[in-house]
């Protein structure tokens, strides 16, 4: 239980770019179109009840039904649609990014009553923007439980998809925190909780759908929800033959913590200083506009960008997370940058020092080609103004927090990437999450820290249509053409 070795083994077995013993991994056909997971979870015989359509800000500091709808939509709602370049059905894009656009994370609201939303447990429907009530009953406070369906992402990424669950959950948490900060609501992120208790509460089996994180609102108190009755709710099958990945199951199980209180005490001692305060470089758009503007940048123009993009973006990304997995004002992460085109910064490899909001030179040089290579040879890694490699010293984190610390580090990396991306779009630039060759990143930056996730930030080479509010998703007419341009560029670069 909470065995760090299991997390280390998982991490090593799911590296890109290093020889891996594949005998412990499932041999399957990635992206099998005949076994494609459904993008939305649907309950049989239960209908979602619509939430208010408006996502405009309501009264500061008040969590009413409209605010709940605003939070859920801006965290996970469908904001753009397009015809799929490959499949017959439509492609749905959400307010947060997700590798492969697979969106394996589900959201559940616990608590209430909130306006017309009765007290109990509800599942969020990101397409219809509604809540399906799963359970009635009074619960302390209001919280959102984030769960992950491994098969939805493992369909493409295999066992590495387990990392994606936490990255994507982190992106959702970044948006939740951005909205709560803008709306003067308090929020707190919990990575330590009783897995079985949370799974039972929201009616998941903890195997094909895993509890990932809990965000509480209006109170710093840790969730404590024992329920006597299991839920037995039928859902539509996710795909004809979902595949199990025993390594994912084992890694998640390895992170189960027997004494959550003790785990939190250890976590409260952990971390390096995060960025204390970040003055905005200019007046910013409302948070809903910032979020709706976001759409992963697919092609970047390698032109110089202003210094504020780096300084403010990195400052925003490396603020402390109000959480139970690091000490107050602290972070589990370290951030390394390949700077390519920032006015007033000599190109090179740097480490970001959050407490001083400063760059520290690792080595100088024009590293566009190297950064592209590190990001699986994707031009976005090198065409950016800068590419950030969000890393964690896993020896330290897992030494203190066990395998549960692995979940927390991946989650915090997703939060940092989400925040950096939002900051870039807020200033009118672009960003995308990127995957990477694990060990090559550590070697390039001469660090023993392991790369958790990459965000590339820069100047989009095309105009990005903003997303729309609930029920009025923007139709992306040029998406197919953009993807053709991208695959041509990828083909040339490889
Ligand atoms: C963890 C993570 C990794 C990603 N990796 C890549 C990548 O390697 N290459 C890429 O082009 N996009 C990558 N993306 C961006 C996704 O492809 C994108 O979020 C998804 O297609 C949905 O589009 P949207 O962000 O515009 O809504 C990544 C996103 C995330 C969250």
CATH architecture of the largest domain: 3-Layer(aba) Sandwich
Number of domains: 2
What is the general shape? Answer: globular
The average pLDDT value, as a whole number, equals 95
**Helix proportion:** 25-40%
Number of helices: 14
Ligands and ions found: flavin mononucleotide
Level-1 CATH class name of the largest domain: Alpha Beta
Structural class, by secondary structure, is alpha+beta
Low-confidence stretches: none
CATH superfamily of the largest domain: NADH Oxidase
The number of distinct β-strands equals: 19
Topology:
Elements: H1 4-13, E1 49-50, H2 65-76, E2 78-83, E3 90-94, E4 105-111, E5 120-125, E6 130-136, E7 142-148, H3 150-157, H4 161-182, E8 187-190, H5 195-202, E9 210-217, H6 246-254, H7 260-268, E10 272-273, H8 287-293, E11 300-301, H9 307-317, E12 330-331, E13 333-339, E14 348-353, E15 358-364, H10 368-374, H11 379-383, E16 386-392, H12 394-426, E17 430-434, H13 438-444, E18 450-460, E19 474-475, H14 479-493
Parallel strand pairs: 2-19
Antiparallel strand pairs: 1-6, 2-3, 4-5, 4-7, 5-6, 7-9, 8-9, 10-12, 11-18, 13-14, 13-16, 14-15, 16-18, 17-18
Helix pairs in contact: 1-6, 1-12, 2-4, 3-4, 4-12, 8-12, 9-12
The protein binds flavin mononucleotide (FMN).
Flavin mononucleotide (FMN) binds at residues 93-94, 97-99, 101, 164, 167-168, 171, 295-296, 378, 380, 432-435, 453.
């Amino acid at each position: 239980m909470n065995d760090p070795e299991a997390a280390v083994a998982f991490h090593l077995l799911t590296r890109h770019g290093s020889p891996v013993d594949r005998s412990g991994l499932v041999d399957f056909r990635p992206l099998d179109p005949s076994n494609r997971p459904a993008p939305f979870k649907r309950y049989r015989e239960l209908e979602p009840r619509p939430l208010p359509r408006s996502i405009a800000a309501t009264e500061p500091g008040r969590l009413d039904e409209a605010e709940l709808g605003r939070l859920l939509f801006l965290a996970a709602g469908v904001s753009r649609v397009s015809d799929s370049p490959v499949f017959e059905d439509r492609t749905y894009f959400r307010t947060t990014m997700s590798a492969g656009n697979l969106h394996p994370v589900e959201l559940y609201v616990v608590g209430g009553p909130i306006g017309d939303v009765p007290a109990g447990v509800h599942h969020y429907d990101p397409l219809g923007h509604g809540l399906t009530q799963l359970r009635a009953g009074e619960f302390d406070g209001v919280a959102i439980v984030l769960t992950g369906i491994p098969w939805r992402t493992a369909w493409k990424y295999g066992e590495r998809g387990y990392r994606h669950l936490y990255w994507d959950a982190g992106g959702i948490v970044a948006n939740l925190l951005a909205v709560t900060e803008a709306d003067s609501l308090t929020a707190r992120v919990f990575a330590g909780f009783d897995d079985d208790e949370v799974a039972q509460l929201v009616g998941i089996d903890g195997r094909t759908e895993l509890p990932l994180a809990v965000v509480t609102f209006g109170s710093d108190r840790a969730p404590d929800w024992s329920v006597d009755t299991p839920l037995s709710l039928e859902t539509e099958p996710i795909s004809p033959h979902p595949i199990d990945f025993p390594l994912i199951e084992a890694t998640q199980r390895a992170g189960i913590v027997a004494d959550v209180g003790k785990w939190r005490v250890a976590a409260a001692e952990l971390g390096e200083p995060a960025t204390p305060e970040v003055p905005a470089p200019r007046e910013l758009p409302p948070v809903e506009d910032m979020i709706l503007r976001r759409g992963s940048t697919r092609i970047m123009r390698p032109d110089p960008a202003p210094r504020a993009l780096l300084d403010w973006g990195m400052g925003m990304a490396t603020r402390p997370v109000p959480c139970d997995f690091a000490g107050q004002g602290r972070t589990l992460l370290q951030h390394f940058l390949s700077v390519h085109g920032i006015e007033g910064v000599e190109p090179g490899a740097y480490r970001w020092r959050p407490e001083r909001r400063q760059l520290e030179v690792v080595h100088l040089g024009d590293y566009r080609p190297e950064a592209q290579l590190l990001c699986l040879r994707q031009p976005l890694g090198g065409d950016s103004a800068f590419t950030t490699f969000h890393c964690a010293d896993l020896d330290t984190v897992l030494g203190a927090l066990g395998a549960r610390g692995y979940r927390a580090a991946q989650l915090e990396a997703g939060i940092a990437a989400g925040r950096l991306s939002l900051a870039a779009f807020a200033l009118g630039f672009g960003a995308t999450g990127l995957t990477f060759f694990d060990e090559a990143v550590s070697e390039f930056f001469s660090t023993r820290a392991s790369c958790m996730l990459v965000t590339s930030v820069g100047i989009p080479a095309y105009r990005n249509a903003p997303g729309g509010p609930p029920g009025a998703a923007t139709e992306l007419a040029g998406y197919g053409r953009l993807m053709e341009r991208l695959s041509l560029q990828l083909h040339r670069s490889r």
